[in-house]
Amino acid sequence: MAIAKAERLMNLALCLLGTRRPLSKRELRDSIEAYVETFRAGAGGAGSDDSFNRMFERDKDDLRELGLVIETVESLDGEIGYLARRDSNRLPPITLDAEEAAALGLAAKVWQQARLAGAASGALQKLRAAGLPEDVDPYEAHGALEPRIPVHEAAFEPLMLACRDRRPVVFDYRKATAARPEPRHVEPWALECWRGHWYLAGFDRDRGAERVFRLSRITGRVRSRGAAFTAPVPDVVTVRETVASWAGETADRSALIRLRTGSGYPLRAKATAVRELGDGWDELEIPYGHGLDAWLVEFGPDVVVLEPAELRADVVDRLRAVAKG
Fold first, then answer.
1. Averaged pLDDT for residues 158-167
2. pTM of this prediction?
C-alpha cells in the first residue's frame, strides 16, 4: 500500500509539473492511472466522488508538505484547476560550509523527541539533494552538545500549524486559579519554549487584548476556525518577555516565604537567600514581581507567604477562589 501511494504521489507530481495550464480534479482523476483504477466508472456514484475528493486533498497536502509548490487557479467560468510551475519548484544551488551544516544538524536534533522529527529529517534530505556537501554529516555528534526541546502537549502541533497558516483557534483553557477550564477564542501568533514549558502568544478575541497561554493548561482538542485574523500581528512577538514579567523575572522587590523541605525546587532556584527553620520547613527570600502570586498558588500547601502583606492576601484570595470552584 505504501508503494502504491508513493507511485500515486509521484504520478500526480509529474502531471502537475508537466502541464502548461491548470488541470481540474476531473482531468486529474481521468489522467492518473491510480485514480482511474480506484475510482473507475460505475464504482460508487456520489460516494465515489467524495472518496476521490478526500484522497486528492490528502495527496495534494502530502505533496505540499514535501515541498512542491502547487498553485490553485480559478478559470473565468469558475472552475478550479491545479498546476506546479517548474520555475516555482526549482531550487538554486546551495553551498554550505561545515559550520553551517553543523548548525542545521543541531537544529534537526532539537526536534528528535517531537512530532517534527520527520519534517526536520526530510528538510535535511532536501538540502542534501540540493547540494549539501557529501563529506559533511549534519547528524554527527558535536562534543557533548545534545540539544532537546521536549514537546509533550497534544496542543503543540495544531497550534504550530495555526500560527503558520494564520488561522484562529478555539480551545478550553484552565487558569492556575480556576477549578474548571473555559473556552478561549484566540488568533495565534507564536509559540515559544521558556523554562521547560511551551507558551502561545496571541490575540484573545473575548478579552480584546494580547494574551499568553501555557500549553499544559489547554484541555481537550484545539479546533480551527476559517475566519481571518481581526487584529494585526506584531512584527516582534515577545512571548518570553511577557511570561517572564508575569513570573516575577523583572522584579525589583523581595518576598519572604516558608517552603516545605524537599519541595518547590523552581522556587529554590530563584531564591536569593535560604534558611532552615526545622520541623520540615525552610525560609526563602525570592524576587517579587507581577504574577508571583499566581505562581506561588501552583505549589499549594507547600508554600506559606510571610511578607509582604499584599502578596499574602493575593495568594489567599486565589486559593479561596480555587476552593470555591
1. 87
2. 0.46
Q: State the alpha helices, DSSP H only, in 131-222.
A: 156-165
Q: What angle in degrees, to the nearest 10, is found between the helix axes of 45-65 and 2-18?
A: 80
In sign, the C-alpha dihedral spanning 241, 238, 213, 314 is positive
Cell numbers for 231: 487584529
Say which DSSP state 86 is in. G
Tens-digit pLDDT profile for residues 5-54: 888 899 999 899 888 889 999 899 988 888 888 877 544 545 578 888 89
Q: CA-CA distance, 204 to 181, in Å (whole number)? A: 15
Q: Residue 239: which of 218, 209, 214, 216 has the closest Cα?
A: 214
Percent of all residues in the chain with a pLDDT value above 90, rounded to a whole number: 21
Q: Where are the beta strands (DSSP E) in 143-294?
A: 169-173, 182-194, 197-204, 209-214, 218-224, 253-260, 273-278, 281-288
Taking the C-alpha atoms of residue 96 and residue 101, their distance in angstroms, rounded to an integer, is 6
Phi-psi region of 300 (alpha: psi -120 to 50; beta: other; left: phi over 0): left
CA contacts within 13 A on the Cβ side of 86: 7
Closest CA to 304 of 319, 325, 289: 319
Say which residues have a Cβ less than 8 Å from residue 108's Cβ, sequence separation at least 6.
120, 121, 123, 124, 138, 139
Residue 225: φ, ψ to 5°:
-125, 145
Rounded CA separation 216/197 (Å): 8
Name residue, grid cell 509548490: 69
The pLDDT of residue 2 is 47
Q: Residue range 243-253: average pLDDT?
A: 62
Q: In a 3-state reduction of DSSP, which class is residue 256?
A: strand
How far does CA 250 lie from the centroid of its chain? 26
Asked if 255 contacts 293 with a C-beta cutoff of 8 angstroms, the reply is no
- Could you tell me the sign of the dihedral formed by the alpha carbons of 31, 33, 38, 44, in that order? positive
